[in-house]
From TrEMBL, chain A:
One Pfam assignment: HATPase_c_2
Alphabetical UniProt keywords: Kinase, Serine/threonine-protein kinase, Transferase
A GO molecular function held by the record: protein serine/threonine kinase activity
Domain of life: Bacteria
Keyword Transferase annotated: yes
Coiled-coil intervals, chain numbering: none
InterPro entries referenced in this protein's UniProt entry, alphabetically: HATPase_C_sf, HATPase_dom
Name of the molecule in the record: Anti-sigma regulatory factor, serine/threonine protein kinase
Domain Histidine kinase/HSP90-like ATPase: 34-136
Amino acid sequence: MKPYTMDFDVKARDFSSAGESSSKFRKTLLMLSIPSDIVRRASIAAYEAEMNIVIHSYGGKMHFEIYKDKIVIVAEDTGPGIKDLELAMKEGYSTAPKEVIEMGFGAGMGLPNMKRNADTMEIVNHDESGTKIVMTINF
Amino acid sequence: MYFHSVTLDKDRCKGCTNCIKRCPTEAIRVRDGKAKIIKEKCIDCGECVRVCPYHAKVVVTDDIGMMENYKYKIALPAPSLYGQFKDMTIGDILASLQSCGFDEVFEVAYAADIVSYITRDVVKTKDYKRPIISSACPAIVRLIQQRFPSLMDNILNIMPPVEVAGKIARDEAKKKTGLKDEEIGVFFVSPCAAKVTSVKNPIGIEKSYIDGVFSMRDVYSMILDKRKFTEKKIEHISSMIGVGWANAGGESYGTSLENCLFVDGIQNVIGVLEDIELGKLDDIDFFEGLACVGGCVGGPLTVANNFVARNRIIKLKEKLNKDASIKKYIEVDFHEFMLNVKLKKSDVLNLDEDIDKAIDMMKSIDEIYKSLPGLDCGSCGSPGCRALAEDIVKGFASEYDCIFKLKDRIKILAEEINKLSIKIPPVIGSDKEVKP
Ligand SMILES: Nc1ncnc2c1ncn2[C@@H]1O[C@H](COP(=O)(O)OP(=O)(O)O)[C@@H](O)[C@H]1O
Ligand code: SF4
Ligand code: SF4
Ligand SMILES: [Mg+2]
């Protein structure tokens, strides 16, 4: 069976619509009878990935695939990439600029939270051309 | 099966579609020129009651006359009642209320003092997921069952003050009078539509301790009538904490927890619940979400302006004791005041319980949605184009309920008719030469 897919463009630094694609994705999961704990985990993983595109990238897109027994989340942007991946995966590490931190973001918990809530997380690319992260959640 | 206090007065409804867009759970449609409430989706928050310009949404409460069926009658005034009157003390209000035909008045504000006490205790002893979410507003609890099922475990499992009041008042009256359970009538004077519903369809308990719910509006005028003739005051026993529950933030204050967040207005609450689910508010200990602006003083059955009532409550509180004396109730095992029926998730949002089938339906919804104009005008009777697409796939609506779709279709048909009308059937004579 073909999955149900959703695609969204995510603009850099557009905080007024930040989080919208994850929110629509979440509502869709509820309508598709996905178990509530999976809804929660998938929403967190999607939200953090989307916010990273908004905060750290030049813009990108979110792609979702929903199957009977798994969810695939793909976050892809056009750069500048993650320079030190090992450091970026550490809790509390953030390069978010001051004005973004003042808005309540940049706690350095996004990537660790994505890893914790997804069953698999693959960083397909993180060089200057952009970051691409693929996460799956099975149920 | 589903009882709802929020209902439609058909004769008054003009089908204007004002309410369908303001319903936070998209539970209303206009069909055949009249608003229809989808029972499974309605959480009785009262938003549509407030927005309808024709007052066609009514909150069904019990008839005051039902009191006559009981030998001993107890009134349970909600704390918000104290904010409804211009220059009456709490003692005056309680005395006038009692003289409306009750044998006894038991303050829900006092039960709120007890609930606050128990809350302070259980948050110390029991491990709750943070933030702990208040169970006091039934509209919000139902919203969570529907839209935030993963947060059901965060809900504080203490009975709301009105049920605690009902239980204590009933038990004491039984002891005092020797009457049987069914001879004692316990009546809640309510600002709230959702609480009318939760008495008939209890949340978290087997059976409500309340026999009837009277609208604060009905009781308000009775109190004003009785006021002149009532001399003796009733000593009120609630403290500033219990009375404070009338306003948003009152329950939070009573928890004595350091990091509380209270939010009023149902749309605001939805936004914060999303943040809670995303784990963005894990540093908060207690979350109090109230459907009505201002809290229960803004309930759909109140009389006074909610901002005025809120100020009155603040003024009244200043004169009250910091604590109520509630020892005798909490010395007994307060476990009888806990919720004991597990909350169930609602699956009203699910397109189909079979995920593959639901996915198919979702794809059809997308197809139809793409063909709609995307104006979200509501003229089709659904709250927006997406909702119409959903209604069509579920079989409750047709593509031509969209007036733009209908117009296009009519245009095509008209052109067709026009083309056909030029054609002249052969049997209708003309002078044309007949060629072989
Ligand atoms: N899409 C991205 N593009 C560029 N850098 C990124 C991206 N996502 C994460 N990073 C880098 O990884 C760091 C850690 O990310 P995260 O754990 O989400 O914390 P935060 O977003 O709070 O800084 C970020 O501060 C940033 O330097
Ligand atoms: S707001 Fe709703 S209930 Fe009131 S008249 Fe309009 S359609 Fe009818
Ligand atoms: S805020 Fe109070 S009055 Fe309004 S729905 Fe909730 S409990 Fe009822
Ligand atoms: Mg981040």
